[in-house]
Amino acid sequence: MRRAPSKRALWDTTLTEVLAGHYEPDERGRRTPESLYGAAKMWAYLQRRGIPVARCTVERLMRINGWKGVVRRKKVRTTEPDPAASRAPDLVDRQFRVPAPNMLLVADFTYVRLASGVFVYTAFVIDAYAGRILGWECSTSKHTAFVEKAIRQAVALRAREGHPIGGAIHHSDAGSQYTAVKLGETLALSDLRPSIGSVGDAYDNALAETTIGLYKTEAIRDDSPFRRGPLTRIADVEFLTADWVGWFNQSRIMHRLGRRPPAEHEAEYYSLHAEQPAGDR
């Protein structure tokens, strides 16, 4: 007579099915964005869904089934300084922790290689408080215009949300796009204070570098759950970026935010400080 499965075995089977729903491709060959998570984030994700599972159980079942999260790749620097351009002062000094939204924006851009070998460039503007991406823009050229558009998107988004962004610091590295006179005019018109990293290494703009590293690892890589096939045109990169940014802001778990997504962390701030503009300090 066969012994009935134990409670642990039954629970393991149930959890394995839940995990397989993320890490194994569906009938269309697609996986969920949460398939990017390692054991720690997947455990936090299950907790948020109300599934009371121990972290060691998630680790054990993922190990048994060979499921792993992705590992962030190194970023290749795409901004090139203009030695003749004047620079704004460094108002940040590598201190990227701020007590409220709309105090510090960080900006950078990266490249995406199309199947043809041509490059597309994606610029981001990020609020340092929760790491929420406020603006982004793709371009086939590294001309300053596309980083200006990302800034204007960020300003317009905050205005629509009822949290005007005026007075914030806009921080970047010393790439020529960010020291251009035209970009300075865009910042002035948006009531943003320019800041340029003073040392000249990746730590000058660490938060933006980290976000771009996640973008390349989670969205651009060939086996990304956000990919729909080869990237053959700029529109493919735009669709992919829009999907990833939406998930990143609304759903991606951040350990530094108490295992919450950026938008949720921001929303909690605004609910607790409803009477005081976020940037007023």
Automatic annotation (TrEMBL):
Q: Which domain of life is it from?
A: Bacteria
Q: What are the GO MF terms of this UniProt record?
A: nucleic acid binding
Name the Gene3D superfamilies for this protein: Ribonuclease H-like superfamily/Ribonuclease H (3.30.420.10)
> What Gene Ontology biological process does one annotation of this record name?
DNA integration
Domain annotation Integrase catalytic: ranges: 97-270
Q: What does this protein do?
A: Involved in the transposition of the insertion sequence.
Listed NCBIfam families: transpos_IS3
- Protein name per its UniProtKB record: Transposase InsO family protein
Report the source organism.
Answer: Nocardia fluminea
